[in-house]
Every structure is written in C-alpha cells, then in structure tokens.
Amino acid sequence: MPADTALRLPTIAYAGIGDEAALGIAGQIEAVTALGWRGLELRTVDGTALADLPEAVFDQVVGQLADAAVSVVAVDSRIGGWSRPVTGDFAEDLHELDVLTRRCQALGTRWIRVMSYPNAGLDEEAWGREAVRRIRVLAERAADAGLVLLHENCSGWAGADASRALRLLEATGEVGFGLLFDTGNSAAYGYSGYRMLTELLPHVRHVHIKDASGSAPSPVYRPPGGGESRLAECLGLLLGHSYQGALSIEPHVAVRPHEAYRADPGACRAAFLDCGAALRSLLDAEVLPRTGGWRSTAAGLERG
C-alpha cells in the first residue's frame, strides 16, 4: 500500500515471507493475519517473481494488501542471488531494480533484498572486484530513488564473510545500502551466524528468522528455537542493541526455493503458522525476560 496510508507497525514488527505460506497473495495475507501480524515480505506471487508480475496482476496485489490492512516490510529480489552469477548479464539486475523501484513506491517499502553474486570461474580478486562494482552501481541507483538495498548473508561473494560485508558497506558508504541478517543461513554455508552478527550488528536493518540443525550440504530446518543456530542469543543481541525493524520468518521447513522444493499447500501453511507461533514463544519465554525495555504485543515488540 502507499506509504502515506500504511499502518504503523510495532517498533519491531513480526512478518513473514509470504510465499513460504502460500503461492497466491490471498493465502499469503491470510497466513500472516491468522498469526495476528500485519507485516508481509514479498518474494513471489503464484510462483512468479515480484518484478515479473504483469502490471494488472501487480495492481491487484496492491489492492488486496490495502483491503487487508497488511503492510509490506520488504521485497526480495533475485539481484546478485544464487541464479545470477558474477559473470552473468548485469542488465538483468539493472532492469529488475528499475521495475522494483516503481513497485516499492506502490507497496510503501524502501527495502529490497539482494545478494552479492556467486562466482563463476573468476579468481578471488576478480570476483570481489566485480561484485563490489556491481553493488556500488546498484546502490547508487537505489539511493537516487530513495530505496535501500539490503545484502543478505547468503549466496555470493560476501554472503559468508563478515569482513567482505563490511567492505561492501565501505564501498557504498551505506548510501542506498545496508545489511539483512538471516539467523539460520549459517548452517548451509558453514560459518557461525552468532559470531557474524556480533561483527555486523550496528549495520543490520532487517532480519530473517530461521533455525536449523546440522550443516552443509544437508542442513535440517526447524521451527524457531528447535535448531542449533543460537537463535535466542541472536535475538537477545538485536534487542540489546535497540534494533528497530522486522523479524520476518523464512522457515524453509516446507519451502526451499533454491532446492525447488515445496510441500503441499496445507503443509506449507501449517509450517508457516507453527514457525510464527514458535518465534513468539521463544521471545516470550527466553529472550524478553533477559532483555529489558521491551514488551510483547500480538504484532511485534514495543519499547516500554
């Protein structure tokens, strides 16, 4: 919905990547509102990436969100992601950013999730040089449009390395660029997510919530609090540092796009609702009692 009509969300809003609950926008809206939440993160609708939706379909999505009084906390692009190697056609990413620039205005959000390009045959120095160049160009365009690209600790040159993420921040001057921290990606990429968060904490503007056990190549994704990602400790760090953004669930329990895996619709919805409830329970039982200054509400956390 347009920014001037968006509902005020809590200081830290609960949200979720909607296509992990349902393919269609109606099902995505129903799932977050069933949890008592008002925040939705958009990645795909009916299996189509947000930037690829026909204009008429996108307009319908905007209308349904407005009718349901659901705000969009961020959109997830494919820019720099696992399907866009560093040697690929940069024009694809520039075009996607152009489309999302217009669509973010209609949706009332400034945040666009990006990654930093998987390698494809370049040496380490050349890979980093080209990844940084592309991110700098994209961040400049985002800043000109009043948007912010949020780099996720996932696929790409800086995905598993805090020092490289800091290099991207330096290269962009944090203008049109910030960081998205996913609490459970570390299991798939072989690093300590908690340790990474301690290094990147002041720069984190958006958070994905997932939990996992095991390690690559076959981590097992679990509801929040059920894995080995030190999720409660990560949440404690964020609250202690006065984080103000969204906690957006991306469970991966029933949907894993990078594996082309999707359970049946009922299982997707159930997993999404279970993970949403588990996040709330983990915060109420383990995190908030150890972190002063916050109170729990149905839709998120407020100072008080």
Secondary-structure map with pairings?
Elements lengths: L11 E6 L7 H10 L4 E4 L1 E2 L2 E2 L5 H14 L2 E6 L13 H18 L3 E6 L7 H21 L3 E9 L5 H11 L4 E6 L3 H4 L3 H8 L3 E6 L1 E3 L6 E3 L8 H10 L5 E4 L5 E2 L4 E2 L2 H23 L6 E4 L2 E4 L1
Parallel strand pairs: 1-2, 1-12, 2-5, 5-6, 6-7, 7-8, 8-9, 9-12
Antiparallel strand pairs: 1-16, 3-4, 10-11, 13-14, 15-16
Account of the 3D structure:
This protein is of the alpha/beta class and 304 residues long. It has a single domain (3-303), classed as Divalent-metal-dependent TIM barrel enzymes (TIM Barrel, Alpha-Beta Barrel), CATH 3.20.20. Helix content is 39%, strand content 23%. It contains nine helices and 16 strands. The chain has helices at residues 25-34, 55-68, 90-107, 124-144, 162-172, 186-189, 193-200, 231-240, 265-287; strands at residues 12-17, 39-42, 44-45, 48-49, 71-76, 111-116, 148-156, 177-182, 204-209, 211-213, 220-222, 246-249, 255-256, 261-262, 294-297, 300-303. The strands form four sheets. The protein has an eight-stranded parallel β-barrel, surrounded by six helices. Strand 7, helix 5 and strand 8 (177-182) form a beta-alpha-beta unit. Helix 3 (90-107) runs parallel beside helix 4 and helix 5 runs parallel beside helix 7. The two termini are 28 Å apart. The model is unreliable at 1-6 (pLDDT under 50).
Features:
eight-stranded parallel β-barrel, 9 helices, 16 strands, alpha/beta, TIM Barrel, single chain, 23% strand, 304 residues, globular, disordered N terminus, two-stranded antiparallel ribbon
Write a compact overview of the structure shown.
The chain is globular. The protein starts with 11 loop residues before the first strand and ends with a strand.
